[in-house]
Write a structure and sequence with these properties.
Rossmann fold; 6-stranded mixed sheet; globular; 6-stranded antiparallel sheet; 21% strand
């Protein structure tokens, strides 16, 4: 097994004798195996090894015991160790992230901090084949493109993953044969997180009932897809250079209500875009959106599709894309631009922070609190601008915003859904008002069209344990007339 790891490191050019390696060590089997592998390799190659442990502040005495174990082990092995104590729960609330996302971000921040402070060259993480398979399954289930099919990269910049060639069982067997102890994080054995459910139920089922080598085959496929992905990226860049002109400097353009505003963006030339092979067109469009937006998260197939549809629309038509990016049909093709930050209160977008404590109240156009439903609670709010929702079925951070492409709402108890655009048409809501109506959104799923309709899917039932209360503070009469002084500027984050 040691030789396989050694060969894997050589294959992906992860390390040489001049490197200063920082290993992320949680105390679990994977990271302990990584640490011992690196120590053994360093004796052959001459690179140095140090370790970082991040205490997340989530598991009480168990987390303290993990930190103490890692400290003792590193002392015995003569490995320099730095321990960081973080408040993951508080960070998650502050940033509007899940605890899983918050923990990952804080770990990476601390790894990079040590890298910079110590003159390190590489950060070693303990991902293995099972982790990679879980990532692939998760990406496939939530919808992904070619990038998501590549799985976890063996090496990317300063980040290296020497154990990606091993299965979890091999790692545990290696430690057992050498009498090396490790910690077990009990939270990994629960069904609280999606990744845990995949780890506990899905991959074992595939190996036991579909193919015993399922994890290995998925790993091999991801390696092939990484090669394919590298080729596609080269071709996308080549064709993108041919048909897209980016404006890195700020330019004046005219847009609805924004005449003379300074923006930056890009122009896609339709005539040259038609020369791009059909298989690559979606990738070219996605790359253009991501580059203008400056982000990749949440930019998916739906945005590519509506951009393609815009090419056959009349000149002047506009659509809204994520992160404040607008696309407009122009004579040459499509113009993408980012407007300056909106200043009008009715143009703002707010986030209600995820994992709110009971009683937490935010003051923005919509106030929010979470509380427990009691058995004797039978009276629901009568105020048409106070609504209750089943908090535990909400998937994303709730946003208070205006309409976006792809928005929809469930309007019947049997799950019948309708596009928001069609709902506005059916209700004969004037076009001049549609962009001004406030929405409470769970991703693209609209919980509440404020002043109009509540989503049937999120209604309180007998099974509801926790209730999210949203209270609209703006407007007069029916909530459709708003004034700027109706909106607070308190605890709700502006996106």
């Amino acid at each position: 097994m040691y030789q396989r790891v050694k060969e894997y490191i050589r294959r992906y050019h992860m390390l040489d004798g001049r490197d200063r390696v920082i290993a992320g060590v949680s105390g679990g089997a994977d990271s302990i195996c990584l640490l011992f592998m690196l120590i053994e390799l360093s004796r052959e190659s001459g690179f140095s090894v140090s370790a970082v442990h991040v205490h997340h502040g989530l598991r009480g005495d168990a987390a303290d015991a993990d930190a103490a174990f890692v400290k003792k082990l590193c002392g015995e092995q003569g490995v320099e160790l730095r321990i960081f104590y973080e408040d993951v729960r508080g960070y998650a609330r502050e940033k509007g992230l899940t605890q899983e996302e918050a923990g990952r971000n804080l770990r990476r921040e601390n790894f990079l901090r040590v890298l910079e402070e110590t003159g390190g060259t590489k950060i070693a993480l303990a991902h293995h084949q099972n982790d990679n398979a879980e990532t692939l399954i998760w990406n496939l289930c939530r919808g992904c493109g070619l990038r998501g099919l590549r799985g976890i990269a063996p090496a990317a910049g300063v980040w290296i993953r020497p154990l990606l060639c091993l299965k979890r069982e091999e790692i545990e067997s290696y430690l057992e044969k050498r009498g090396i102890s490790y910690c077990t994080d009990e939270s990994n054995l629960t069904d609280d997180y999606t990744r845990n459910r995949i780890r506990i139920h899905v991959t074992p089922y595939l190996e036991q009932h579909v193919n015993s080598r399922a994890v290995l085959h998925m790993s091999e496929t991801m390696e092939q897809m990484r090669l394919v992905g590298e080729f596609v990226e080269q071709e996308v860049k080549r064709y993108g250079d041919m048909c897209i002109r980016y404006r890195d400097e700020e330019t004046e353009v005219s847009g609805r209500g924004r005449s003379g505003a300074l923006v930056s963006g890009a122009v896609l030339y339709d005539a040259k875009f038609q020369q791009v092979p059909e298989a690559l067109r979606g990738f070219v469009l996605q790359e253009m959106i991501c580059r203008v937006a400056g982000k990749r998260k949440d930019i998916g197939n739906i945005h590519i599709k509506i951009l393609e549809e815009l090419l056959v629309k009349q000149v002047g038509r506009q659509i809204q894309l994520p992160y404040g990016v607008r696309a407009r049909r122009c004579y040459e093709g499509i113009e993408l631009f980012v407007l300056p930050p909106r200043e009008s209160p009715e143009d703002m977008e707010y986030e209600l922070l995820g994992d709110m404590d009971e009683g937490t109240l935010h003051t923005c156009p919509v106030g929010a609190r979470v509380f427990q439903r009691t058995a004797d609670m039978v009276i629901f709010p009568e105020n048409p601008y106070t609504k209750w929702f089943d908090y535990d079925i909400i998937k994303n951070t709730v946003k208070i915003r205006h309409r976006e492409p792809g928005d929809y709402i469930t309007i019947t108890k049997d799950g019948g859904a309708q596009k928001l655009k069609q709902y506005f048409i059916n209700e004969k809501i004037p076009g001049s008002l549609r962009d001004k109506i406030w929405l409470a959104a769970d991703g693209k799923h609209i919980l509440w069209i404020v002043g109009y309709r509540q989503n049937q899917k999120y209604q309180i039932t007998e099974k509801t344990r926790r209730i999210l209360e949203l209270k609209f503070y703006g407007g007069q009469d029916d909530g459709r007339k708003r004034q700027s002084d109706d909106f607070g500027s308190g605890g709700c984050e502006k996106d």
